[in-house]
Design brief:
With 89 residues, the protein is α+β, with helices and mostly antiparallel strands. The protein contains 2 helices and 4 strands; from the N terminus they run E-E-E-E-H-H. It has helices at residues 62-71, 78-81, and strands at residues 20-27, 30-37, 44-48, 51-52. The chain has a 4-stranded antiparallel sheet with strand order 1-2-3-4, with no helix packed on it.
């Protein structure tokens, strides 16, 4: 995901903008792994293989996102790991 996308992205749940970006792997302005966080509804959206997965809760893959949280728990903030919606560790 190109970092400049953050200028136009809004939360798909509550339409909040701006969102918070947490980079895990970045090279040349392209984020390959990371997370987007909505401070209004406390939802996180993972960035996996350069793709931000910003789906409504009912279309999200709980297993994939829980594995993502476990893999990067030392690199993401507490508010995502232990308090984010729709699930956390």
């Amino acid at each position: 995901m190109n970092k400049t996308m953050m200028d136009i992205l809004a939360c798909p749940i509550d339409k909040n903008h701006p969102l918070e970006l947490f980079e895990i792997r970045e090279h040349g302005g392209i984020i390959s792994e990371g997370a987007i966080f909505c401070p209004k509804c406390s939802r996180f959206f993972p960035i996996i293989e350069e793709i931000p997965i910003m789906l409504p809760d009912e279309l999200r893959d709980k297993k994939q996102e829980t594995e993502f949280l476990k893999k990067y728990k030392s690199q993401l903030p507490e508010k995502i790991i232990t308090k984010a919606n729709p699930w956390h560790l």
